[in-house]
Amino acid sequence: AFDDAHSYGSTGAMALNRPIAAAVPTPSGHGYWLVGADGGVFAFGDAHYYGSTGTTTLNRPIVAAASA
């Protein structure tokens, strides 16, 4: 975490198949999703986990993400 941002967790201790491609904050600002280039999604803080495509073969890697 930098400046006034809070850390709610990380993938630092995990063996990832591909690097993290995007970080998306929750609407409340009290959590975030980290999205891997392979489509793996990791939820931290008040972010809910809704699934991922981490086990699906993608045609191209994930390069960005946004919350709805």
Can you walk me through this structure?
With 68 residues, the protein is an all-beta fold. 0% of the residues lie in helices and 25% in strands. Strands 1-2-3 form a three-stranded antiparallel β-sheet, with no helix packed on it. A hairpin with a 4-residue loop joins strand 2 and strand 3 (41-45).
Biggest sheet strand order reads 1-2-3
Global geometry = globular
For the record, give the distance between the C-alpha atoms at the N and C termini, rounded to a whole number. Answer: 24 Å
Radius of gyration: 12 Å
Structural class: mainly beta
Helix content: under 10%
**Uncertain spans:** none
- Secondary structure tally, helices: 0
Secondary-structure element order, N to C: EEE
Give the overall average pLDDT.
Answer: 90
Give a quick account of the main beta sheet: strands, pairing sense, barrel closure: 3 strands, antiparallel
Give the beta-strand count.
Answer: 3
Q: How much of the residues is beta strand, in percent?
A: 25-35%
